[in-house]
Design brief:
367 residues; mainly beta; Beta-galactosidase, Chain A, domain 5; eight-stranded antiparallel beta sheet; six-stranded antiparallel beta sheet; globular
Length: 367
């Protein structure tokens, strides 16, 4: 059965399905096994072959993702853990880093643990990649129904990060998908809900695993400048776009990209597997997220390729401040992020992807 899709109009669906749950929709649940016990989850089935799990109990991040039964996301050794297991000290964050399709890093610090001076609290320790992914959402809502654009599904929630004498930042996330689609959209609204200016640091760990990640898979991106900062990464510059099989003892590599936008201000990056004729792509606005890093780990048991767009590189709050690049939100100011993540399937869709990236490179935004 090749590329079956559910009926696109309401009348046909009423004719064929007794309940829309037969073909797609949302299912809320509470995880009840091991360290994941108590984590609220929402399973999303687009009916277009794409299924993924949103975790309101873990910062509205996204764990497993599959397309037509094929795993898309990478799941780490830690697995899903409840926020109660979160340890912000040094690199202990890694013990609760399930990776998944999306892990949000931030929002007071993104990057290595560090100390930074706060005007009231003095020297403050900020843990690796911050606390937001280990913060349960409130105001959680799910909605699905017919609209003028077809059958739509939506999951929303809000995370809050605050303390006495310190910051009060909120993140309101909306994840949307349409019936029959192979993609989903995320809208994030970061707001300073406090009365004093406060730094905002965030980036997204978007993690792709086997089998889309495999030997011969390659990165496609409209990059005008690519660089590395560590010696190990510099040694891998010649093959930063190309993936190999996992090997024992391989060290992680990270590459930084300056990406071109198209005339609408958007850009697209993708990991392409020509053998499977599949690609996973990310489309976003560089004006909203001017920094983009590529994370490449080809170690046995830790075989993952990640897109890392954000308002900062993963260098930590102190280093970001010293470079004069630390974004500060004024009271009630909001920073909005919009992006689309999805699957491309088949030769024609991959050809259109290549053409899109070529057109971005030729656009006015790239000059």
């Amino acid at each position: 059965m090749e590329n079956w899709k559910p009926e696109p109009d309401r009348r046909s669906c009423i004719s064929y399905y007794g309940n829309m749950a037969q073909v797609g929709g949302l299912r809320r649940c509470i995880l009840s096994e091991g360290k994941a016990t108590g984590v609220e989850a929402v399973d999303v089935n687009t009916g277009g072959g794409l299924e993924f799990t949103v975790l309101p109990g873990r910062g509205m991040d996204i764990a497993g993702c599959r397309y037509r039964g094929v795993p898309v996301s990478y799941i780490s050794k830690a697995g899903i853990t409840a926020p109660a297991y979160h340890d912000p000290r040094q690199s202990q964050w890694l013990k609760s880093f399930f990776a998944g399709m999306l892990t949000t890093c931030g929002i007071s610090n993104a990057g290595p643990d560090c100390t930074d001076t706060h005007p009231v609290l003095g020297e403050v320790l900020y843990g690796l990649h911050g606390d937001i992914s280990n913060t349960a959402a409130d105001q959680v809502g799910t909605w699905e129904d017919w609209t003028s654009q077809g059958y739509q599904m939506k999951v929303t929630g809000r995370m809050s990060e605050g303390r006495l004498h310190g910051e009060h930042l909120t993140l309101r996330r909306t994840i949307e998908a349409g019936l029959g689609e192979k993609c989903f959209r995320i809208r994030d609204e970061y707001q300073n809900a406090g009365s004093t200016p406060d730094p905002l640091m965030f980036f997204y760990h978007i993690n792709i695993g086997y089998p889309i990640l495999d030997k011969g898979a390659h990165l496609l991106a409209p990059s005008v400048h690519v660089w590395a900062e560590t010696e190990v990464s510099k040694q891998g510059m010649e093959r930063y776009q190309v993936c190999d099989r996992p090997k024992a003892g391989v060290t992680e590599q990270q590459f930084f990209h300056e990406l071109c936008p198209d005339r609408q201000g958007r850009t697209t990056v993708a990991l392409v597997n020509d053998k499977l004729q599949l690609a996973f792509y990310l489309t976003f606005y560089p004006a909203q997220m001017p920094c983009f890093a590529q994370w490449k780990v080809e170690r046995e048991g830790e075989y993952v390729f990640a897109f890392e767009p954000g308002n900062c590189h993963p260098i930590g709050r102190k280093e970001q401040r010293q470079q004069g690049k630390l974004e500060v939100l004024e009271p009630m100011q909001t920073h909005v992020v919009e992006m689309e993540l999805g699957i491309l399937d088949g030769v024609e869709e991959l050809q259109r992807l290549h053409k899109r990236v070529e057109n971005i490179m030729l656009s006015e935004g790239c000059k």
